[in-house]
Amino acid sequence: MTEQTSSDKAPKAQKINGVRGMNDLLPGDAAQWFHLEHVFRDLTRAYGYEFLRTPIVEATAVFQRGIGEVTDIVEKEMYSFEDRLNGEQLTLRPEGTAALVRAVIENNLLYEGPKRLWYSGPMFRHERPQRGRYRQFHQFGIEALGFAGPDIDAEIILMGQRLWDELGLKGVRLEINSLGQAPERAEHRAALVVYFEQHRDLLDEDSVRRLGTNPLRILDSKNPAMQELIEGAPKLLDFLGEESLKHFEGVQTLLKANNIPCKINPRLVRGLDYYNLTVFEWITEELGAQGTIAGGGRYDPLIERMGGKAATACGWAMGMERVLELMKVSGSLPEPQAQCDVFVLHQGGETLITALVVAERLRSAGIDVILFCPADGQTASFKSQMKKADASGASYAVIIGPDELAKNEAQLKDLRGTGNQQAIPLDGVVEGVIDAIVGATE
Ligand code: HAM
Q: Are strands 172-178 and 136-145 parallel, antiparallel or unpaired?
């Protein structure tokens, strides 16, 4: 055999990195996500919401039509591509609502009456990544379809408040506004155009363009140089008719009756074009620029606009990354959990075979087990195995060495409480561990 010199070696393969703004969920953080998912699922169950999952990819038209052509999302942020196998125009979903409405229409889900639905999953927007803003992020959302009254607007807001309370979030405030109905917005729009035309020299390039297409979006601008101008613009609330005001007041009365404080923000217009009447956002100052942890509102025009039979709807979605970040800041993240209940140690050979059988028996009894597995395929000293057992967070170690095997026994060691170690018969390991667990919890 010829010896390989370093010059014969193939060049070290270059590593390939993940896509900018798209993050891995690493094992150390997984428990936090599971916790959030768990609390959210319980919440949806408490309010009678059913789960609906749509694909990650939709026809581009779903979002163009649903969210609106003149929005940041559709104009600049969508991951759209042509499926080169069949020429279809597709988009990675930037949000869940338009896709859910597409699915509801396609599957005729409102046939039997109104529906309360929830969803979760990754969304994609080509934004400039920064803290709390990613290109792949994750949303939880709820949508209540077919309910017209302010009671459902209030219910979904109450759900949000309950969620923040259960997650232990601090410093979240609710801002709310009404976007009225299309004719009211048209009147407001005309007034906005007159106002912004008078101050055209103060508008940035984007806003000049939007003056002709969607002047309401100018109110959404984050450009600091335009804030004073925006502050002085005509307010949509002043253009609302009796019905719209009644709905808005109805929502506020119900929130007040449930002690939910909210601030009316006449500038809150949301970044998507499907809304009417109530819109709202939950905002925190703790996360810097990306402080909106959730937002939503009523979107009565959308179902018909997407080709369905006209039906009312409202909902909201939260950004999981932002909520988890706020939980961190609020000190309410759950304690890291143990990986298993029992860690099984052995010395290879016959002891490994027995250890494997014992581990399986324990699992059949509902006990979570990690069986020591040496990295090099050999074995390791009990001392180094014990370090791993400790690090796993297991409450008990079951030790099976050649001496134990010879006596048909195992050693059961309490790793967290007393530290006691005792011999137990091999065929009584499951009972021994259960007795120890029950004894420790009594
Ligand atoms: P949205 O305000 O675009 O609304 O997004 C909802 C939430 O998703 C935001 O409040 C934020 O927490 C999170 N989010 C948005 N973009 C990013 C990003 N680039 N990185 C991290 N988090 C982000 C909607 O998507 C509507 N579909 C909500 C809705 C449901 N309205 C009615 N029903």
A: unpaired
